[in-house]
Design brief:
The chain contains 10 helices and 2 strands, in the order ββαααααααααα. α4 (about 215-230) runs parallel beside α6 (about 275-290), α5 (about 240-270) runs antiparallel to α6 and α8 (about 325-345) packs antiparallel against α9. It has helices spanning about 65-75, 90-95, 105-210, 215-230, 240-270, 275-290, 295-315, 325-345, 355-375, 385-415; strands at about 20-30, 35-40.
């Protein structure tokens, strides 16, 4: 049935027979009065509820869950009309659960009408505000665009200035690098000139000291000249450097010849050297040290040859003392040589030369050759007692020399091994 505005028969209470659903649709009439229409449909048409409240009625707009959640966060509401799963049928049934409750439908409709009027007024006011705000927003937007253009221009100017600054910094760094190279080269040039001046002065002084046979001063100058020449190894082909290097070489050869000449005079005289002669020979040994390891080995070899000349003559295998039974005399002769060396020459030669050890090694080498030759000559006719005695004295001599020179031999191997001199 239907209820008119003039009042007709009131509808019966709603029942749930035959699984019927009841829906109420409010429609505003021409006079603003509420018409309520009750419609009962079979549950077979329940699937069409998503499309509206009835055939041809208004549809329900559905939003995504994400949008609904965002709306709840922005505009929280407890009104059931704002619920995303709002069901108008359930809501109306809740408001009008029975036929008697329909008596307050007019009052409820009037409340809804008042609420709609308020909402319309708010919407109208909001639209007016939005219209005026839209003009202001456009102005603000234009102002923002202008500010962005100005900011873009400023950023572009800053970028251009930064590029110019970077170019300027590169140019300054290039100039600084060039000046640094110039400073370095100038420093090297000044240092080379100072060393060249020192080298020229030292070479002139060395020439004077060589001519005057002032060996101690010449040795110091020779050390200095050698070190200065080492700095000019990369200047080969420069005439002045080549001349100085040749002059130093000539002075070194002259000093070497003078030193050996002075030692040859010592070998020609009898007895120990005089005090003045000792001082000269000490300076000569310093010159030999400055001339290098080769000159030192040559000097030690010369001194050893001088000392062993009588021994080679007296104990040659074909001489009177060259027999195997005279082996003990050989060791006695060398002990006497070491005593004479300690008394006369030990202070003459630098300790680092290890001249006593060199003499002992040369004695062992010479004696070894002599004994080999003697044993080869006496093959088949050796006296066992003589051989045993010689062997016993040889072992005693070796132990004695080892006790005296073992530490010195280790020093020689460690200090002079790099110079090509074996320890022996």
């Amino acid at each position: 049935g239907k209820a008119a505005s003039t009042g007709g028969p009131r509808p019966r209470p709603l029942s749930g027979a035959r699984s019927l659903s009841t829906s109420l649709v409010f429609v505003a009439g021409e006079e603003g009065r509420l018409l309520v229409r009750l419609a009962a449909r079979n549950t077979d048409g329940a699937a069409r509820r998503q499309g509206g409240c009835g055939g041809g009625g208004p549809s329900i707009r559905m939003y995504s869950p994400a949008l609904e959640a965002a709306l709840r966060d922005v505009v929280p509401s407890t009104d059931p009309l704002d619920a995303p799963d709002f069901n108008p049928i359930s809501h109306i049934n809740k408001l009008f659960p029975n036929e008697e409750s329909l008596g307050r439908a007019d009052t409820f409709s009037a409340e809804l009408q008042d609420q709609m009027t308020v909402l319309d007024e708010e919407i109208l006011q909001t639209v007016r505000q939005q219209t005026s705000a839209g003009s202001s927003a456009r102005k603000d937007l234009e102002g923002g665009k202008a500010a962005m253009r100005e900011l873009f221009d400023k950023v572009r100017d800053i970028k251009a200035k930064a590029e110019r600054s970077q170019t300027m910094v590169h140019e300054i760094c290039r100039d600084i690098k060039s000046l640094d190279y110039a400073k370095r080269h100038l420093t090297l040039t000044i240092t080379a000139l100072k060393r060249l001046q020192m080298l020229v002065t030292a070479t002139e002084q060395l020439s004077v000291m060589t001519r005057e046979r002032m060996y101690a001063e010449a040795a110091n100058l020779l050390h200095a000249v050698t070190q200065l020449l080492a700095h000019f190894e990369g200047y080969a082909g420069i005439r002045k450097i080549d001349e100085l290097r040749a002059q130093v070489g000539e002075l070194s050869d002259t000093l070497r010849a003078q030193v050996f000449d002075d030692f040859n005079r010592l070998s020609a005289q009898e007895g120990a050297p005089q005090p003045s002669q000792t001082e000269t020979l000490l300076g000569a040994c310093a010159v030999v040290d400055a001339l290098g390891p080769a000159a030192r080995r040559e000097m030690v070899a010369w001194f050893s040859s001088w000392q062993f000349a009588p021994y080679k003559h007296a104990f040659q295998p074909y001489g009177d003392a060259g027999s195997l039974d005279k082996t003990e005399l050989r060791y006695g002769w060398h002990r006497q040589l070491l005593r004479q060396f300690d008394e006369t020459f030990v202070t003459l030669f630098p300790h680092a030369w290890h001249v006593g050890l060199s003499l002992t090694l040369d004695f062992c080498s010479i004696t070894n050759k002599h004994l080999e030759e003697i044993l080869d000559q006496a093959r088949g006719s050796l006296d066992v007692a003589v051989l045993t005695h010689a062997l016993q004295k040889t072992v005693e001599f070796e132990k004695e020399m080892h006790a005296r020179f073992s530490a010195e031999a280790r020093d020689r191997e460690g200090g002079e091994g790099g110079e090509g001199e074996g320890g022996g």
